[in-house]
From TrEMBL:
Gene Ontology MF terms in the entry: FMN binding; oxidoreductase activity
Span of domain NADPH-dependent FMN reductase-like: 2-137
Matching PANTHER family: CHROMATE REDUCTASE, NAD(P)H-DEPENDENT FMN REDUCTASE LOT6
Protein name: NAD(P)H-dependent oxidoreductase
Assigned GO CC terms: cytosol
One Pfam entry name: FMN_red
Record InterPro entries: Flavoprotein-like_sf, FMN_Rdtase-like_dom, NAD(P)H-dep_reductase
The organism's place on the tree of life at top rank: Bacteria
Length: 172
């Protein structure tokens, strides 16, 4: 099972639609608890963990691979998403686990999301994740091709399918 994690809390986000599309190409589960995670505090990173954190770590541990899709906000990762990543460090569930991301930033985005994804790479390195570079791609998606939580453009869908296939292959 691939765990799909969006860095966006926005209802109807492009990032969520990318992952909604990705879910159709493999056995996958979309993580929906981002907004429920408590603020990271190292003092709380011990048993018993907050229930939301324990659930996240259980999902991460059970996943064969993880695919992220996050926007860039103010030149970096959105705070709620960075909070999720902070909770992954102490548990070790990402250690050696294949991970990748799709950068769905539109062409109009000032940095194309590059700063957020550089930060994501750095943080995943601290978590010990195995980054599958051939599955880390930029697929610009406009809101015009998003409907019902999916990307409707067949070409973009095909490119998302390739990412999923590469990540699945790396997890074997």
């Amino acid at each position: 099972m691939i765990l799909l994690i969006s860095g966006s809390l926005r209802a109807g986000s492009v990032n969520g639609a990318v992952l909604g599309t990705a879910a159709g190409f493999s056995e996958a589960r979309i993580y929906r608890g981002l907004a429920d995670l408590p603020h990271f505090n190292p003092d709380d990173d011990r048993d018993p963990l907050p229930a939301e954190v324990a659930a996240l770590r259980l999902l991460l541990g059970a996943a064969e691979a993880v695919l992220f899709c996050t926007p860039e906000y103010a030149g970096g990762l959105p705070g709620s998403f960075k909070n999720l990543l902070d909770w992954t460090i102490g548990g070790g569930e990402l250690d050696g686990k294949p991970v990748a991301w799709i950068n769905a930033s539109s062409v109009a985005a000032p940095t194309g999301g590059a700063d957020a994804h550089a930060s994501l790479r750095k943080t995943l390195g601290y978590a010990g994740a195995r980054i599958i570079d051939e599955a880390c791609v930029r697929i610009p998606v406009s809101r015009a091709v998003v409907a019902d939580g999916r990307v409707t453009d067949p070409d973009l869908g095909g490119r998302i399918a390739v990412v999923v296939r590469r990540l699945v292959e790396a997890s074997r």
